[in-house]
Amino acid sequence: MNPAGHLAPPAPARSLSEQFVADHLFLYLAAGELRVYDGHQRFTLQAGDYYLVRKNRLVRYDPGSAGAGCEMTYCCFDEPFLRAFEEKHPVGTKKSCPSDAFVALAATETIAGFIRSLGPYRTPAGSVTEAFRAVKHEELLLILLQHQPELADILFDYGLPGKIGLEKFMNTHFKFNVSLPRFAFLTGRSLSAFKRDFQAVFHQTPSRWLVQKRLQEAYFLLDEQHEKPSDIYFDLGFKDLSHFSFAFKNRFGVAPSVLLKQKTSGC
User: What is the mean predicted confidence (pLDDT) over 90-99?
Assistant: First the structure.
């Protein structure tokens, strides 16, 4: 998600391909709509929406909803920037804030004016020029905290994910296509401890369990829900349709398209 971390230009939503949110992300949907999934709920962002996406969360953006007319402006607030900001601008007492991965931001005229103000400072490529980047970055955060001071509870919490139960977390997030080190980090473990604890809980290696879990879910969706393979492979954590079809046939002895045809034709 924008590894540079600085006020990216209006860009196709499909450019947000990473499913692990490493830094807090400000997101403004300039046009179109975008369906998102955070492991607990699915909802649709509409043109004109502003959101803060929490760091250390798993989030998926549906590429099927990100058509040519879907554009956004976004930037990351990384920890070095936030620590420097907090030294310069004391944020006062932190207040409770929703724990959702996506936190809705107030659509005020101030923030709308800020988005418009970026125009003169953009390079031909669309990003904010380096000379003004830090200033605009700071201005954006000042605006957000002015209207929603409770965001400080999210932004200035520098703690790492604590150790949590594996069974519930993995059964909720197995569809996300992220690496084992990511899963280990999000459950508060080193990679070796994650693998050891995983074996104790599921009696399988994480890699084998993830593939089997995704394929079992795929079989249910094809067999019972009559979903199309092309509509489910991405949501189940497979990088492409051919990889999904190969793994499915290797597991069940029949290609997903053939299984679907059998079920829908009554064979």
Answer: 70
pTM exceeding 0.85: no
Return the bridge partners of 33, or none: 46
Nearest to 116 by CA among 33, 24, 28, 44: 28
Count CB-CB contacts under 10 A for residue 38: 19
Domains by residue range for the chain, with CATH: 8-155 (2.60.120), 166-265 (1.10.10.60)
171-195 tens-digit pLDDT: 999 999 999 999 999 999 999 999 9
For 126-151, write each residue's pLDDT tens digit. Answer: 788 888 888 999 999 999 999 999 99
